[in-house]
Every structure is written in structure tokens, then in C-alpha cells.
Fold this sequence. Notes:
Radius of gyration: 23 Å
Number of strands: 0
Helix content: 55-70%
Distance between the termini: 55 Å
Oligomer: single chain
Structural class: mainly alpha
Amino acid sequence: MDKTRRQALAAMGVATGAAAVFGSTALNAFAKNEQPAAVPSALPWLWKKLDPMEAGKRAFNYYHEKGG
């Protein structure tokens, strides 16, 4: 059975919509866990919360210092 271009595009639209709905549901399930995962004890450092603005400034400066 040959499908027309219109039918193929409609099927892709339905598949994309279904993926968006089910994907967002799955992401919401993962997003509810806001605590970071337990850090394995094999790491030599402890978990430390970072200041995003300070990290951004350091990354920006490092990029330009290295000739980026």
C-alpha cells in the first residue's frame, strides 16, 4: 500500500507529538529528584555546591586566557 506524502507527514506529526508527551512525562519524573546522586566513596573529593555565576566567570576568563 503506497502512502502519500501528506499521510507520511501526518504520521510523523503524530509520532513527534507522542514522543513529546511521553518524553516530557519521563523528564518530569526524573526532575522531581532534585538531590544529586550519592557520590561514590571511591572519589577523593567531596560534593560541593558551586556558584553558577562564579563558575561562568572562571570559564569565560579561562577561555580568553588560553587564546580561545
